[in-house]
Amino acid sequence: MEAGFSEMRNELQSRDALWRRIQLECQQLHTELLKIREYKDMQEIQIKHQSSCVQLTEQIENKNAELLLLAQSQECQQEELNKIRNHVYRKEQSHCSEQERMKTEISDLTEELHQKEITIATIMEKASLLERQLKMELEIKDKLLTKQQLLDFQYKVIESENTHLKEMV
Prior knowledge:
Elements: H1 2-70, H2 75-168
Helix pairs in contact: 1-2
Subcellular location: Cytoplasm
Keywords: Coiled coil, Cytoplasm
Protein name: DEUP1 protein
């Protein structure tokens, strides 16, 4: 009975350790999920920023139109206007490339999270399979041990009978 309690205690300790590992992995996944949400929030901020950039771009284009009307004959002012346009274009390109980089990073993190989920599921399946295999091997070994003990007993009986028969002869 005490052995049964010991086995139950060992089983409970084993399951408790497994439960703790699962909880730790869940905490890690939760942390990664929070990071992904932060990146998503950053992307939303970038989108809002892009909207304000578009508004700024529209305002700049309106000012450019006014400048063109006022300075059609002045070549110097035209060059300045071209410089402003080039600067805005570079800013827009820079902003677009930054936004694309963030999208890629979020996509990579999402894929990494998905791969970790797959890995966890695979590990759980392998652990279950290994546990079943171990139980089967233990059963086979128990059967073989019982068979070996029975054969040893039969051998001793036959040996005893053989000794008895030799004494009789």
